[in-house]
Amino acid sequence: MTAACSIGGHRHRKNRNFxxxxxxxxxxxxxxxxxxMKNATLLRLSLLPLALGxxxxxxxxxxxxxxxxxxxxxxxxxxxxRAVELQDEAGGTRRIETDDRLVNLLDFQGSELLxxxxxxxxxxxxYRKLRLVFDERGAEIExxxxxxxxxxxxxxxxxxxxxQLSDDDDETETLLAVLDLRFSFSRQTxxxxxxxxxxxxxxxxxxxxxxxxxxxxxxxxQGGGCAGSEEEGxxxxxxxxxxxxxLTDYAADVTDSPLVxxxxxxxxxxxxxxxxxxxxxxxxYTVAYTCKADLDDPFTRQDTLVxxxxxxxxxxxxGTTTRDx
Length: 325
Prior knowledge:
Structural class: mainly beta
Radius of gyration: 26 Å
Number of strands: 21
Low-confidence stretches: 6-28, 47-55
Number of helices: 3
Mean pLDDT: 86
Helix content: under 10%
Shape: globular
Distance between the termini: 54 Å
Largest sheet: 8 strands, mixed
């Protein structure tokens, strides 16, 4: 069995039986001198690091994308994702090219996932960051007011991850990235009328990520200072750790911002609402309800958001947690 390996910037083929037969002692002719024997031994020893490197080098990787939420009134969000970048704990970056096609991000809000990478061989390492690389060619958002171009911000922080990829010929690791469209896009009217894209996402091993769901009573969503609020503004904000007394809007590059959000929706015009977070790393979070998410601009600090209750929730690896309001 073989698999692709990369050593010293070159690609080789890895053979599991390489060590077993590559160093068989060669019988030297009777006239060989002690120097000849020493040189032969040194040659065999010099090949040992190469053999060991070939035995452990790369992992097979799939990467999928899901999306949640949307900017206010968005009916279509067309973008190209040119590549995915993985940053290891030493600061090195591995760039993996995709098929670079124009897609509507709103198509991947349910069970359908966008496959970005399939069976890619990447160096075995501990990775700390996953970043999507966008292309502005043909990128636009369609709303009730028309079509608007998308401009990609220079700074793209990406999603924090903690994933150790190891060499295993029999297994392909699958990573899932979940892009929050509400926090990732901001409407800009000056000097040009456009949307600016700065990705906000979570990511991790697909099987390790958790889900948070809940029902929201019909009378609750417009109570407690939320009377008359539009349904576009109904949302849950999720914060790391205990933030019940420090609830804020989302603002780019501000450490106390919520991690992601989830729209509070209902299937028809009557009945209770519900929400769903997906792609959450295990840990403790604070979930809070706001009825004014439609006023939240990722590039502007807001003080007009109205929050009602906030609760602590614990997300387990691969599990589903329920918190009703």
